[in-house]
Amino acid sequence: MSEIPIVLKIDGATYFEMPQLDGYLAKHQTRLVEASLNEAISAINEHSPGAIVSGAAPIGREIMDAGLQKGLRGIVKAGTGLDNIDCEYARCQQILVENIPDYVHETVAEYAINLMLSLARKSWPVQQTMRQKGWFDITPASLGTELNGKTIGLVGFGRIARSVARIAHFGFQMSVIAYDPYVSAEEMELCAVQKAEQLEDILPHCDVVSLHTSLNNDTRNLIGEKQLAMMKSSALLINVARGGIIDETALLIALSTQKIGGVALDVYSQEPLDVNTHPIISQMISLNNVLLSPHIAWYTAEAGQRLQASVAQKCQQIIFQE
């Protein structure tokens, strides 16, 4: 094994650039090695990393087993969600798994609000026409709505949702309702938020529904045909959490039949998204009440700096643990 501890950064299907990570790690007397997912096993055998960093790359048993033979101590998720890492197997093998939970909550909250505003004011069809013709003839179809005074429902009430709640309530005077079985009504009340005991309690009453829960067996397809049918026909649905939380087939039907007012998606069941081959999203791209972005809610200069510094610190803690 190299005298200088190695951190192996594995890139998956979704490219994630971390140009400052090398410098941050050097300050902690560690060296960065980068490899694609296909090269991961070879890189592990060659460099014997003490820690692995992953963004979206799936880290499963094969990589962990190879790492254990070379002295792997832990895995750092360069982000919040851990659904791409087999955490149960890591726990059984006593491999420490860390994420970076608090680098991005304001960043993602701002982006969620941005999507709400863009949908509410129908910015996408206006932009399309302006770029094509130079002007947009105002029609009833282009009539926007205000967020001010409306009701927003939050599914999940972690750090990001709390920031969204603050901006929505104190910025737009919105009423905020949240569903999260793991957060008490008293804790929500401190944030000027009303607790819903069931998901179905918020859907019929909200002008905006914003998803901020993790993806697991309980939340996969949490928003499906039944839930979409309960929403207002004018309601806007925002997802900056994980794609699998929404049943995309049911969503397409709801949009096509105008059961909901619109949707903004930053995440998808399959990433990276190819609108030419994705069987569902490819049918949404022609709809004016659909906004799509490439899992970019977290992507700002400030958040990137915080992320890379925190990843380096976590790697140091893993490698130099006694």
From TrEMBL:
The keyword NAD applies. It is an enzyme of class 1 (oxidoreductase). Coiled coil: none annotated. Gene3D superfamilies: NAD(P)-binding Rossmann-like Domain. Pfam families: 2-Hacid_dh (PF00389), 2-Hacid_dh_C (PF02826). One of its GO terms (molecular function) is phosphoglycerate dehydrogenase activity. Belongs to the D-isomer specific 2-hydroxyacid dehydrogenase family. PANTHER family: D-ISOMER SPECIFIC 2-HYDROXYACID DEHYDROGENASE CATALYTIC DOMAIN-CONTAINING PROTEIN-RELATED, D-ISOMER SPECIFIC 2-HYDROXYACID DEHYDROGENASE FAMILY PROTEIN (AFU_ORTHOLOGUE AFUA_1G13630). This is D-3-phosphoglycerate dehydrogenase. It comes from Microscilla marina ATCC 23134.
